[in-house]
Amino acid sequence: MADNQHQKLWLEVLSKAITDALEGAPSWSSDRVEETHKARSYFTETNKDFTTVCNLAGVDPEAVRERMIKLIEAAATPELLFGMPHAERRGQKLHSKPAHRRKLFLTYKGERRRMTEWAKCFGINYRVLHNRIKNGWPVERALTEAVGPSFKGMGGGLAFRTAQGTGGGSAAQDSSKIDFPKRI
User: Fold this and answer.
1) Residues 92 and 74 in one domain
2) Same domain, 69 and 104
3) Which residues are registered as beta bridge partners of 106?
4) What are the DSSP E strand ranges found in 61-153?
5) In 10 A of CB 53, how many CB atoms?
6) CA 152 from centroid of its chain's CA atoms
7) What is the pLDDT of residue 149?
8) Which of 100, 95, 157, 101 is nearest to 124 (CA)?
9) Do 78 and 6 have their domain in common?
10) pLDDT confidence bin for 12, thresholds 50/70/90
11) Per residue in 74-107, is it b (16+ CB within 10 Å) or e — as a string?
12) pLDDT band for position 154 (cuts 50, 70, 90)
């Protein structure tokens, strides 16, 4: 009886992860888009935790992974789920882990490849492609749009915009709008 109860618990854990991946992270998450991407990568990237949870729940990890990959590919992007601009297409994969710790995949014209492979195919620097996807560009545009000019004296390709808002010594900064309680 105890094994059945433990199995139900782990099925519930798996069910919650599925809900987060397909419907989005809960509203109390600080960054729902990023948390939803993490929930999706839990199913799409190989990891021991996923395998352990599936085994404890009494389900086949590979069958769950295969089914979830199909469901995630058919689902709206997290950006669309939460009404963020610049997310017009499916197939974008965003992650929070450093690139050396994971393999990012993109699907373009029905073909799924690592982002590094797509960058080589299209002659784009991997960092440029990664940043485009991270900033919500549709996959097709990220792969096919020409790379802008490089500013050699400014960090090798980084263009800095003119700062907007108040600067040092402006009237807005000269008078503080913060009130501090007086000491007694």
Assistant:
1) no
2) no
3) 113
4) 105-108, 111-114
5) 19
6) 30
7) 61
8) 157
9) yes
10) very high
11) ebebbbbbbeeeebebebbbbbeeeeeeeebbbb
12) very low
Residues 115 and 68 in one domain: no
Lookup result for tokens 């050396």? 100
In which element (H, E) is residue 111 found?
strand 111-114
Residue-range definition of the domain harbouring residue 11: 1-84
CA 35 to chain centre: 7
Number of domains in the chain: 2
The structure tokens listed for 48 are 């021991």
Q: Give the model's pLDDT for residue 52.
A: 94
Residue 178 within any structural domain of the chain:
no
Any bridge partners for residue 141, and if so which? none
- Report whether pLDDT(112) > 80: yes
Structure tokens at 114: 């690592």
Cα(7)–Cα(1) distance, integer angstroms: 10
Mean pLDDT of the chain: 74
Query: Do 10 and 74 belong together in one domain?
Result: yes
- pLDDT over 80 at 59, yes or no: yes
Q: What is the pLDDT of residue 128?
A: 87
